[in-house]
Amino acid sequence: QVQLVESGGGLVQAGGSLRLSCVASGSTFSRTNMGWYRQAPGKQRELVASISNIGGTHYVDSVKGRFPISRDNAKNTVHLHMSGLQHEDKAVYYCRAYYMAREYWGQGNQVTVSS
């Protein structure tokens, strides 16, 4: 069982930056694929960025160049560094872990962008 605890969301002005963090429990983090998803009101949850256990990354087109994802295996942590935030980025952001054909989700973190 993997537990994920997220932090770092909040309110930011358009054009501003936030960093989301997700800390995973257990000893398998370095072998776990991690991702950040988001869900805006009335929309389906979508993948924002992912990072594999060996560091390969993938991004949805709308955040490429703005939301780099990184991981620190020594701290069981994955980060989403968000910059140039836009109104369209407002959503609840979720951390996801995928290991041994099982997925685990964080509790979600609200990101709100104001003008």
Determine the strand fraction and express it as a percent band.
over 45%
What is the rounded Rg? 13 Å
Distance between the termini: 41 Å
Return the average pLDDT rounded to an integer.
97
| Fraction of residues in H or I helices | under 10%
Q: Tell me about the biggest sheet?
A: 7 strands, mixed
Structural class: mainly beta
Series of secondary-structure elements, N-terminal to C-terminal: EEEEEEEEEEE
**What is the number of helical segments per DSSP (H or I, 4+ residues)?**
0
Shape: globular
Number of strands: 11
Instruction: List segments where confidence is low: pLDDT < 50 over at least 5 consecutive residues.
Output: none
Structure explained in plain terms:
- The mean pLDDT is 97.
- The N and C termini lie far apart (41 Å).
- Strand 9 (91-99) and strand 10 (102-105) form a beta hairpin.
- The protein has strands at residues 4-7, 10-13, 18-24, 33-39, 46-51, 57-59, 69-72, 77-82, 91-99, 102-105, 109-114.
- With 115 residues, the protein is mainly β.
- The strands form 2 sheets. Strands 2, 4, 5, 6, 9, 10 and 11 form a 7-stranded mixed β-sheet that branches.
